[in-house]
Amino acid sequence: MFQKILVANRGEIAVRILRACRELGIRGVAVYSEADAHALHVRLADEAVEIGPAPARQSYLSSDRLIEAAQQCGAQAIHPGYGFLSENAAFTQAVREAGLVFIGPPPAAIRAMGDKAAARERMQAAGVPVVPGYQGTDDDQSLEQAAAQIGYPVLAKAAAGGGGRGMRVVWQAEQLHESLDSARREALSAFGDQRLILEKYLPGAHHVEFQVLGDQHGNLLHLFERECSVQRRHQKIIEESPSPLLDEDLRQRMGADAVQAARAAGYTNAGTVEFIIDPASRAYYFLEMNTRLQVEHPVTELVSGLDLVQWQVRIAAGEVLPFRQADLQPRGHAVECRLYAEDAARGFLPGAGKLLLWQAPEGPGIRLDAGYAAGDEVSIHYDALLAKLVCSAADRASAIRRAQAALEQLAVLGVVTNQAFLLALLASPEFAAGQVNTTWVDEHLPAWQSLAQPALPLAVLAAAALSVLDASAGQAAPPATADPFSPWAGSLPAHRPAPARPIVQTAGRMEYACQYGAAPQRISLERAGSAWQAEKDGQRTLLAVVDHRAGVIILSLEGRQETVFWAADGERLWTACRGQVYLLEKPAVDARRAGRSRAASGVGAAAAAGEVLRAPLPAQVRAIQAQPGQACERGQTLLVLEAMKMEIRIQAPAAGRVARLLVEIGQQVNRDQPLVEIETD
Question: pTM of this prediction?
């Protein structure tokens, strides 16, 4: 067994692998860019090596520097995580040539399955059903001809990528060229390769994947399936195992084809074979194989009872799998919810900032795989994934209820997250019935807005006001927490939320401007004897404080108690209760922002003030698609930004003419920075 392993990744991925190393008695070495010098994975590692300056996605992609770091610290092996370099055959080969062990599949298997075009051909030869498509020359003319032959809608996909990056659905021929350009830019940015393939797009299909595991002695098996159909923009949000769609016959047939696909590639270690299923015909098709562990692997761990990261390490060390396919049976049900730093009410726009408070849920069957803790900075340079909440129970309905309860316990303040959106998905009748397909979120919730309960916001806002009035800097803050099942739980330094002034106070009465989702609200609060009276839209509620300390308050609301978390950020207050987050600001501050910029809805959201379109978040300018003097139509894309591995299209809010460009390609821009001036008709 290895004595020391270097983890060539960051965030929750690195934390997860470091945990497995510690449980195996192996020293784990973290790497970090300058931007991640104080990140959680660095604090939890036995050793840490700096590999590059900020800004810094490229630091984690520097093969030479990673190998050099492993040699310098005396590591015998490198674990690439499940992203970045995990599917890079050249990196795998370089690690081996340096005398180190790559914890993952051999280079030949990565080449065979990492290239989507070659993988399709290999699967066809192996007799695995493949979705109709085209993997030939990828110039625009060839792809145009192929799309017409396949029939619209088609899916343009990065030939060298995965994880939803570099993918665009093309519904008609007029959209093809713009979609190809956008997919190529994203593929080049994410994978360093802009080649594309085409596949027939099947609306209403289910996305089901099988976990495979193979040792170096010829033993290869699957660990059952994961349902991954709850997606937005081809990015998974909720995964579960087993799939509610599969019966035992279909499970056995798909599992056998997954193993056949892996065997055809000469695969060892952990990997994932992905399929799409037509629910009407129950026909299934090979989609792709990810030659790595997946982000959603914890649901498989909870139903199989196996630690997949530990088995990756054991297999790389030459151990033999001690079990066979017949020995494995799924136990219970597991659901995973991905917590992202993104605003679901504004087209899932990613966000960044400092985490003021992080309160993890606790209890049986609850697991939180996180890469952050209170006080950490969420950077624009990396993926928006903050944590994965994974809950298991004896059956599907119980696992869903446990996930809902855990999400209501979770409190993350300082950045906008998709927490309320996850709760809405879990509560939907379609999800409860197992009928959600890959297009359901985009078709049924394109303009989702969180809806406040009529009385609960008053309790939350009143709690925030009382906390601000009564909290003192000398009080103890609640401890920052990580995964309660982690060996490092409770060892993190405590973070004290900053004290704040009352928002607006006149003769014992305070007024708030509250941002809840995309619906601004005005709240007033005043003393009523020993209690407080809150008012919104003429509705009044009487509140009394039961207990409070910095970061948390318990109050009585009409005979029931509510626990509310809070954190202050200058003149802004963040509060959370039952999974719903409220942001409070001065009305004057709110008014200034409203006058300075207005946010349009959708993925292509642009903040506009008069005739100036502004950046909705810190980002980099990736493309400029309009020039001064050019006429533009409403909704036309003028610029493309990139932040947190996502493209944001800046669109014209009305028909008019481009007056002036204020940025250039490659430029870093800040939130609200002017991008382009237009003259509207």
Answer: 0.81
